[in-house]
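Class prep. Protein, please:
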Amino acid sequence: MKDLIYSNLTQRMYDPSECIRLVNYRQLMFYIQKGVEILDLYPSKDFKTGQDVLVFIVNRNDSRSVYEEWKELRIKKIEAETYGKN
């Protein structure tokens, strides 16, 4: 049996092995605008900086297409910053 986690936020159970964690707030806003459901959130520490962060949990499969859109936008932004300025 899978170890499910109960979310006090959504009052639902979810399988953490089927989820991803988001800490990038711009990415999170993009996901929310695209209708991705937040399953849970919890406070944590950024392992690189030691700063306090909120970690948002979303279902991996439900957010896959939005992730692909996010990656494409990031690539376009980087290309514009790198090659678009004359």
User: Anything to note?
Assistant: The helical segments are 25-33, 60-83. The radius of gyration is 15 Å.
